[in-house]
Q: What sequence folds into this?
């Protein structure tokens, strides 16, 4: 089974301020970008992060061969129930997603 | 007028390449600017009004920058001093600056820009309809605002310009936007506004916009049409790709950046490689808007005590979640019985390290770990109460059995005492903007002559 990480150069995530998290998929080539742009369905990404689709912002950026997803953090950074202060491990779910 | 800004690194205390800094000083910059923090590390710094970095490291790096400033003969600006930019952190940084100035026999004019907001000012603005929520915003009221230990407003270019206009050698600014300390001077000198903000955004993380992210030092030239960015470490290069990709970093929207008084739009920006190391960008657009400043606030949300037990017994490893759930129920009943505490007045959070500690309910993988670390985080109204609950939980974290008819198990405690008191827990409580008619009306400038 092919995972996103098998095709993309790198997948990273990070807070964009305390209330948002953003995930960047660096595809590395036009070919990988075209493949991932079609394979990554917005609904599936929202479901992966237990988010309503309408809260997910998606940017397909051909100049950079990057696909970017941003959504409000379900738990504010540093809240008692937050598990990842920087949101940096969230990328693993997308990297491991089977396509 | 073309403006050259030297950025030693993305944040003070992250280190920088000394030879590259010397090259930057030799290139005759008009300003040296460095960021002192952000919300990256979480709400503690703002909540407590403390820097997250060691004073010793802060002092040694700041000393090098103060020497670079003296050699260059231009102002040195730090934004978001002491990680969070609270007033106490500005004074902490001023104290360090005075110490170094005396050690180096430097005579300086130092401007302090305070970004701290009295709760009453924000409460009045809320009542006057001058506070707007961003998405998503916590609910706020006079009561929640009064509970915040620190509220800061993010200064923009105008407030930094006011500080520079005092003729200061050094500006120690409280909370500012990351970009304002870099954009202020080119904007003041009439360079292209879109380029000023965009160049500042590209350079605010230091060499992160280059192919050698840890090398630190970046030089940006601003002019009437665009900006040129150059990394100064040997071997580092800024390519159109590395520069344009930096707009992705920690930004929810890679094309738009909101600042006090408007926003930057880089949708039409053209990036060109000037040579092997430098990249030029033109076509960035500044769109003026209403003058608002973003607010950040933190409030205390209880006190914490933690315990860690490590399960290595294969049966317990396989049933770690069931064990933690059962123990949770047992402890809740015991706390009610022994301490008379209702479950709503405190919280027990179990994190299973080796199972789903990082992702919680989002975790979609399961494995067969060798061992599982069980982290119990206790949150209560006072430290004494959290600590007391920790002591109550201690023998059960060590010995709690899955079934009644088994010999009492004993798990691995990594240290003695098993519990650690963590002190206050803070949480971010504001994601709003404040409308201002006069940019300086929510900020305060204090100018001092050090060793006159």
A:
């Amino acid at each position: 089974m092919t995972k996103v990480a098998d095709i993309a150069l790198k997948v990273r995530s990070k807070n964009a301020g305390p209330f948002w998290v953003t995930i960047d998929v660096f595809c590395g080539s036009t070919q990988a970008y075209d493949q991932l742009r079609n394979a990554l369905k917005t609904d599936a990404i929202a479901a992966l992060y237990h988010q309503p689709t309408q809260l997910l912002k998606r940017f397909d950026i051909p100049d950079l061969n990057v696909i970017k997803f941003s959504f409000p953090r379900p738990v504010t950074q540093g809240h008692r129930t937050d598990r990842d202060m920087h949101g940096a491990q969230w990328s693993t779910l997308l990297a491991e997603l089977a396509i | 007028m073309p403006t050259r800004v030297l950025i030693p690194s993305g944040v003070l205390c992250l280190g920088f390449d000394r030879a590259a800094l010397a090259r930057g000083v030799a290139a005759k910059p008009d300003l040296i600017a460095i960021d002192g923090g952000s919300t990256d590390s979480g709400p503690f710094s703002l909540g407590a009004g403390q820097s997250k970095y060691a004073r010793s490291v802060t002092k040694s790096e700041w000393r090098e920058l103060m020497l670079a400033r003296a050699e260059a003969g231009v102002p040195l600006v730090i934004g978001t001093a002491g990680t969070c930019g609270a007033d106490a952190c500005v004074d902490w940084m001023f104290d360090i600056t005075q110490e170094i100035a005396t050690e180096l026999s430097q005579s300086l004019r130092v401007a302090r820009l305070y970004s701290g907001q009295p709760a009453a000012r924000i409460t009045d603005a809320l009542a006057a309809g001058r506070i707007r929520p961003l998405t998503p915003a916590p609910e706020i009221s006079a009561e929640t605002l009064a509970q915040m230990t620190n509220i800061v407003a993010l200064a923009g270019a105008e407030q930094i310009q006011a500080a520079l206009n005092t003729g200061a050698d050094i500006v120690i600014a409280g909370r500012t936007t990351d970009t304002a300390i870099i954009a202020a001077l080119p904007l003041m000198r009439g360079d292209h506004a879109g380029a000023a903000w965009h160049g500042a955004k590209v350079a605010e993380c230091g060499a992160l916009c280059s192919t050698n992210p840890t090398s630190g030092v970046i030089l940006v030239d601003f002019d009437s049409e665009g900006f040129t960015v150059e990394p100064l470490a040997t071997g580092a290069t800024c390519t159109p790709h590395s520069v344009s990709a930096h707009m992705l970093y920690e930004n929810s929207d890679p094309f738009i950046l909101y600042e006090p008084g408007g926003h930057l739009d880089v949708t039409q920006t053209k990036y060109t490689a000037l040579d092997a190391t430098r990249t030029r960008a033109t076509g960035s657009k500044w769109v003026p808007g209403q003058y608002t400043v973003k607010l950040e606030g933190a409030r205390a949300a209880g006190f914490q005590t933690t315990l860690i037990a490590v399960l290595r017994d294969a049966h317990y490893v396989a049933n770690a979640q069931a064990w933690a759930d059962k123990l949770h129920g047992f402890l809740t009943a015991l706390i009610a019985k022994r301490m008379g505490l209702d479950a709503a007045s405190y919280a027990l959070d179990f994190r299973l390290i080796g199972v789903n500690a990082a992702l919680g309910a989002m975790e979609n993988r399961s494995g067969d770990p060798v061992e599982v670390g069980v982290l119990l985080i206790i949150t209560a109204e006072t430290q004494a109460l959290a600590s007391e609950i920790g002591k109550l939980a201690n023998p059960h974290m060590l010995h709690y059995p899955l079934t009644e008819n088994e010999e009492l198990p004993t798990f691995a405690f990594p240290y003695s005492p098993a519990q650690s008191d963590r002190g206050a827990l803070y949480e971010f409580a504001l994601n709003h903007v404040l409308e201002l008619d006069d940019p300086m009306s929510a900020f305060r400038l204090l100018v001092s002559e050090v060793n006159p």
